Amino acid sequence: MKKVITSARVTELGDIANRLSELYKKTTALQDDNFLSTHFSELEKQGKAITAAVKRDSVLSKLKEIDSRRDDAVRVLSKLLTGYENIPEQTLKPHGERLAAIFKKYGVGITDENYSSESNLIESLLADFATEEAVASVSALAGVSQALDNLRKEQNVFAEARAEYEKARSEWENQPTATSLRKPLLEIVNKKIIPYLIAMQIADNSKYGSFISAASKIIESVNDVIRGRGKK
């Protein structure tokens, strides 16, 4: 029976923990083994904790991704207005200069601000572009209205995602991170459960053999993924 490759990712360890725990719960013949019962109970607990921690990480990752899209919307608007500001067509140039001047009060640098500051600055920017004088120029320049609409959309999406993140974060206080759970889980599997099963395979294969075979396949399926990743 092979041990889990130590370079396994947190998500892969969580997968192993959950699958092994389910396998053990379905193996009625081993429920009277106090050693396995104790350690699989802990393994199940660790697996659920990793699943929850990974979910928390994914919420933050999603927020960063949405913020990146919002930043892109700011940059698109900036490039569009710069083009109109310098356009040689005299019927369009004044409109471009007017809108570019509004944008320059904020600049692309707002994308480097923290979430709260950037959100406030974007709201202020959009309000400036909604004034009567600005709206006339926006209407005169193809693509600007669409760029502003897209920025508004991404701003709203970010606001919703951040509200979800803040709500979740209030529930995460003092919860372990996925990374901090990695080592303890790996030790339960590699240093406790697997050595014990190897010994029991020799001592009472008729009782433990079937479970060990199924558990080995679970571990090997993940090890194959890890080895395949290393070959890329």
UniProtKB/TrEMBL annotation:
Pfam families assigned: DUF6261
Protein's name in the database: Uncharacterized protein
Protein source organism: Capnocytophaga stomatis
Coiled coil: 144-171
Keyword line: Coiled coil
InterPro entries: DUF6261 (IPR046228)
Superkingdom per UniProt: Bacteria
